[in-house]
Amino acid sequence: MSDETLQVDVVEQAGAVLLAPQGELGYNEAPTLRQYLKQAHDKKPTRIVVDLANVSYMNTPGVATLVESLQISKRNRTRLILCGMNDKVRAIFEIARLNTVFEIMADRDSAMA
Amino acid sequence: MSDETLQVDVVEQAGAVLLAPQGELGYNEAPTLRQYLKQAHDKKPTRIVVDLANVSYMNTPGVATLVESLQISKRNRTRLILCGMNDKVRAIFEIARLNTVFEIMADRDSAMA
Amino acid sequence: MNVGTSGNNGTNGSTPHLRLQMLSNPLYLSGARELVSSVAKRLGFPDTACGQIALAVDEALCNVMRHGYDRREDAPIWISVWPFTDEHGDALRIVIEDEAKQVDPAAIKSRDLEQIRPGGLGVHIIKEVMDDAVYEKRDAVGMRLTLVKRKAPKPTPAPTATSAPAPNASGNSDV
Amino acid sequence: MNVGTSGNNGTNGSTPHLRLQMLSNPLYLSGARELVSSVAKRLGFPDTACGQIALAVDEALCNVMRHGYDRREDAPIWISVWPFTDEHGDALRIVIEDEAKQVDPAAIKSRDLEQIRPGGLGVHIIKEVMDDAVYEKRDAVGMRLTLVKRKAPKPTPAPTATSAPAPNASGNSDV
Ligand SMILES: Nc1ncnc2c1ncn2[C@@H]1O[C@H](COP(=O)(O)OP(=O)(O)O)[C@@H](O)[C@H]1O
Ligand SMILES: Nc1ncnc2c1ncn2[C@@H]1O[C@H](COP(=O)(O)OP(=O)(O)O)[C@@H](O)[C@H]1O
Predict the structure, then answer these.
(1) Residue predicted with more confidence, B92 or C6
(2) Which of A76, A77, B40, C137 has its CA 20 to 30 A from that of D23?
(3) Is the beta carbon of D123 within 6 A of some atom in ligand 2?
(4) What's the gap in Å between the CA of D90 and the closest CA on chain C?
């Protein structure tokens, strides 16, 4: 039976890449986000924005993917910004003490500005 | 442990009683709606409107409660109107062939007009 | 990801992919419903089908609690789930079992729909929203309901070349 | 409606109110998550707590699949649920069991949070969002994780009359 895969919307704009995953971001979906992030990094953009506004659920595989991407960002001198987190998603970053490690903004508009 | 009970909003207006149950309307919640309907019938209003716009899930105990209320309505010469059904709720009435038995309207405004 | 199902319906004797044992307490209806509809969704069933599966399981469980166990709230009910693929495509088999009194499967049916009264609709709804719904007595005690839902509706069998289609053989026929 | 729980935690030897047996296939994670969070919601837990219970169960199941079963997808996992009430109020006990390799419970812990790297967060999150999370070896084979979530957070024990409170005994203390 076919697996539901993660849908990720992509916007490229003035040297920035925006990724907007849709729906649940758990163990099954994290590898798909990882592919999208890898492709984004390959373009060596000045900025990568991950808009989590439409992520209804997230757990540590998703978080781990973002931490890995943060490490690549540092090597590449790309700015990685997370935005649009709902309270449930924000709580995981807080528990993992990652809320101060990532650059986090309220929404897509401020992150792309 | 305490049970979650069904919340039902009530509006009385010019001889009409409007009942708006909120959330799931299944086996556990149908008896609560039945109480509200009984109280509404006791007032012998000219019209009872059941607004299902905020009912996310419904099954046959809820349907049975409404059929019982329809029978009381006929005896009392009260007009019983259902409105605000989403597709899932409407489908149950269609399968049960009750969609032509009830007076069904699009929304609260038309039902109260 | 592969759920590792074989070409046959894969239930006979094989371990279900999921099996929920629950008390016959109506408090747990929503949990059972959400379990089966989430699994169906994850297996790629359309949203409408997931809602129908949840509805059928809910109606069937309500009936076990009300008719089978006479509202006793501490008796066991089992819900087993197997995805399978056959010549008609992907499908889900859901089996609901109890230890309640045994009744004649032929007696498990809804009222005549023409005769409007409260109740007497659950079994009709279950049969309408599922592709298959079969009641039977379990070996020693209790009843078993086997439900099947297909991802794509099963095509109505085409008339064979040798037999002329009977006029109005099916309700949908415009012949 | 009463779930029929006694004053003690009611798990020792008693039948769980719900027990899900599932294959160690990640496809079924969402079903298990929805089951426990719906049950918690129906038992009157606040939405935040329901989300935390779902998260903890999801992380724990992922770990059984990845670490316990090395991503084998056809091995059994059991999730048992008991509501109970004790002197601290209403609570939910969730027990996750497997037949995977046994490890020293003391070895099941997340990385140091200061050391930023992908992974190594699941166990920390489980312990943070639940009121209790205890790993142990099962009798013959496999591991058991016992989780407890309370409706109201357990109050920190007040200092007794005979012992003066130590300065800064707790992180929240402004003494
Ligand atoms: N699980 C069951 N065990 C025994 N009898 C059942 C069961 N489910 C249904 N029945 C029988 O079938 C009848 C029709 O059920 P249903 O269509 O759901 O309507 P209702 O439950 O309102 O009577 C019931 O009245 C009952 O006699
Ligand atoms: N169910 C389990 N069975 C065996 N070992 C486990 C289990 N859960 C966790 N562990 C061990 O605890 C460690 C920490 O787990 P966790 O905090 O979830 O981070 P991660 O899984 O990313 O390593 C794992 O690396 C593993 O060694």
Answers:
(1) B92
(2) C137
(3) yes
(4) 15
3-state secondary structure of B10: strand
Cα–Cα distance, B16 to B19 (Å, whole number) = 10
Model confidence pLDDT, tens digit, residues C52-103: 999 999 999 999 999 999 999 999 999 999 999 999 999 999 999 999 999 9
Beta strands in chain D (DSSP E): 18-23, 76-86, 89-98, 132-137, 143-150
State which residue of chain B sits closest to D2, comparing Cα positions.
B1
Question: Where does B1-113 have alpha helices with state H?
Answer: 30-42, 60-76, 87-95, 108-112
Q: Does B38 touch chain C (CB under 8 A)?
A: no
pLDDT at D82 over 70: yes
Q: What is the pLDDT of residues C110-136, one digit of tens each?
A: 999 888 899 899 999 999 999 999 999
Distance C150 CA to ligand 2 centre (A): 38
Separation in Å, CA C15 to CA A113, C5, C9, C88: 55, 11, 12, 23
CA of D103 to the centre of ligand 1 (A): 49
Q: What is the DSSP string of C1-48?
A: ------SS---SSSPPSEEEEEES-GGGHHHHHHHHHHHHHHTT--HH
Calpha distance D153→D65 (Å, rounded)? 30
Query: Whole-angstrom Cα distance, residue D123 to residue C106?
Result: 52
Can you say how many angstroms the Cα of residue B46 is from the centroid of all Cα atoms in its chain?
Answer: 15
Cβ separation D30–A60 shorter than 8 A:
no
Cα A53 to chain centroid, rounded:
10
Rounded Cα distance, C14 and C150, in Å: 20
Is C27 in CB contact (< 8 Å) with chain B?
yes
pTM: 0.88
Amino acid identity, position D132: D
The answer to whether B27 contacts C29, with C-beta atoms less than 8 Å apart, is yes
> Can you tell me the ipTM of this complex?
0.89
